[in-house]
Design goal:
Blueprint (H helix, E strand, L loop, with lengths): L1 E4 L2 E3 L5 E7 L8 E7 L5 E8 L5 E3 L7 E5 L5 E6 L8 E8 L7 E4 L3 E5 L1
Parallel strand pairs: 2-11
Antiparallel strand pairs: 1-3, 3-8, 4-5, 4-9, 5-6, 7-8, 9-10, 9-11
Length: 117
């Protein structure tokens, strides 16, 4: 089970931190990720992190603005978002998968809304 929190409204240039609490650790959740879906657009991967080795991966457009991280217990994944832009407005979803590949995520949270004005 994945439960997101931390979304909200922020002005352009501001920052937010999203959190995702994950219960359980199985082979199907070796990798945790954040995706987003903007109004009228498809879902896209934002960042992913391996729970085993901590390697992280980012969509090209992130360009250093976002950072994904895990807590020491590897049960909570964070997405630190800086220099937010109006085009970052979207529903953000936490996901778990067996590998850090955008197509391998099979478990999803309910989403948390981020609005940048």
């Amino acid at each position: 089970q994945l439960v997101e929190s931390g979304g909200g409204s922020v002005q352009a240039g501001g920052s937010l931190r999203l959190s995702c609490a994950a219960s359980g650790y199985t082979y199907s959740s070796h990798c945790m990720a954040w995706f987003r879906r903007a109004p009228g657009k498809g879902r896209e991967g934002v960042a992913a992190i391996s729970r085993a080795g901590g390697s992280s991966y980012y969509a090209d457009w992130v360009r250093g603005r976002f950072t994904i991280s895990l807590d020491n217990a590897k049960t909570t994944v964070y997405l630190h978002m800086n220099n937010l832009k109006p085009e970052d407005t979207a529903m953000y979803y936490c996901a778990a998968g067996d590998r850090c590949s955008w197509s391998r995520f099979t478990s999803w949270g309910q989403g948390t809304q981020v609005t940048v004005s």
